[in-house]
Here is the input.
Amino acid sequence: MSERGMADGGGRIVALCGGVGGAKLALGLTHVVPSDRLTIVVNTGDDFRHCGLHVSPDIDTVLYTLSGRANQETGWGRANESWRFMAAMAEVGGETWFALGDTDLALHAARTARLAAGDSLTAITRDIAARFGIAAGILPATDQPVATIVDTDEGSLPFQRYFVERRCAPRIRAIRFAGAPGAVPTEEVRSALAAPDLAAIVICPSNPYLSIDPILAIPGMRNLVAGSAAPVVAVSPLVGGQAVKGPLAKIMGELGRDLVPASILDHYDGLVDVLLVDRQDAAHARDPRMRLAQTLMTSLDDRIALARSVLETASTAGPGARG
Amino acid sequence: MSERGMADGGGRIVALCGGVGGAKLALGLTHVVPSDRLTIVVNTGDDFRHCGLHVSPDIDTVLYTLSGRANQETGWGRANESWRFMAAMAEVGGETWFALGDTDLALHAARTARLAAGDSLTAITRDIAARFGIAAGILPATDQPVATIVDTDEGSLPFQRYFVERRCAPRIRAIRFAGAPGAVPTEEVRSALAAPDLAAIVICPSNPYLSIDPILAIPGMRNLVAGSAAPVVAVSPLVGGQAVKGPLAKIMGELGRDLVPASILDHYDGLVDVLLVDRQDAAHARDPRMRLAQTLMTSLDDRIALARSVLETASTAGPGARG
Here is the structure.
């Protein structure tokens, strides 16, 4: 078997992902899977309208990451960004809690104009990806509005208000996905997940509650994953009993979940065949559906190595364990 | 009489204006009239939604001009502007026909956010003016949407598409103001025009058809001006039989109007007591309602001098000639 492994064996790969952590593995996958066989299905629950602009934070993170435009220092936004717009916003008393760089703004403005003209988020994302030279497919999970709402001890907050403005400080009681009952997976997502030559479905190490659940909350999506003949491999976002980044550990605590891989596997119960767990958590990986890998991705090599681990795991997993 | 002249004699001044040319005289007025007695009523017919943002070109030009932020080279937008947003828009295939500078964008975004929150354009404009250190009153003519539509030989065009994207190339057949029948002058505009100590109403040398007419098309506005006990002084936008700037001469030709002051006076018939005409057009200033002044404003001194001429004219005009 060549270095390119399973992917060369044929087979398409579909990955579900959110923002930063998920985008890292998605980038790794682009180095291992031929681009015409790779589809990234991205969370849209973080999307919101801000100052009239339609912002899609996770789609943008994936677009920036896969095209080499991501800001490595911040973990969000664009590299070589400037902030004159934000300074002017402060001057005129505008909202400044959500940082919008001068060049990042262009994606939101271009997207908003095309949405207003009746184009779908799917078509807009495809065209921007092409402009950025990204050959892999990047698909919003749905073209309908799905909004992650966080019910907290300070009341219900739209996701970005909770995540950015309040820096995840309020205690979470529940997480809802407004609009999800009326949403459907796009035709493109359905086709990708139903492809006869699908070799694996990958659930990236994104936040299961905030990044993957909004995808799975779209009616029909869960069945498309659970009912697939292809193996489903998730990567645990926990490393050494902690979240690599973001509010996952805090949220799991507030929701009464232990910070162990078993909590992630429980969360994905019935959906995944294998959960890839970091070697640091080997002591907690007693379930036969768990396998070990290095999941912490600090370098590009790490991202590529994890992508390989995921594909190797899928090639030897076979479906059915989740039934 | 002191240098400050009529303004010190008491009396409030209300000026109706559009963008560039009107804003120049408005700036001159701020040097001659105490700011608590000066109100600038601004055209909103150019307002439009672009990429989700509410853009108010004439209000912004007045805000930038009166606060020393105007770009002197371009005649629109802000000084010390940067264009990284526009470069990024081109990169992602976004709309680039309407130039939005990185700092100019902030006004549109802040305004859009507050409009979405239910604030009025009047309140938003007042707050931004205060942030910019402008003491004179700047009032949108109305808080309801009024959109200038240009009927041309290429069909009907929203104003900015005609003005910016098509650079006024299509031949005009008629000009309409969509939404005007449902609009009302704001309470603030009505109060300013009905002030008992109103000393003059000034119609700035803006384009009568594109900048002043959208204000006058608002039901009740014409009567507020024509019925005022204060003298109404308009400044002709023609100098030497030409428009100083913009498409006025072309439009007058297409509408079958001669490029002489009499055409402007006819247009404002029943509305103004005096039309100030540039000395270059003395040969065409035979109507007793016309008076001569230097109306071309190239320097700040010119702006201030014309403002003084307008006030002197008003102080000796007395109302009634228009009856």
User: Anything to note?
Assistant: Chain B touches chain A through 35 residues (CB under 8 Å).
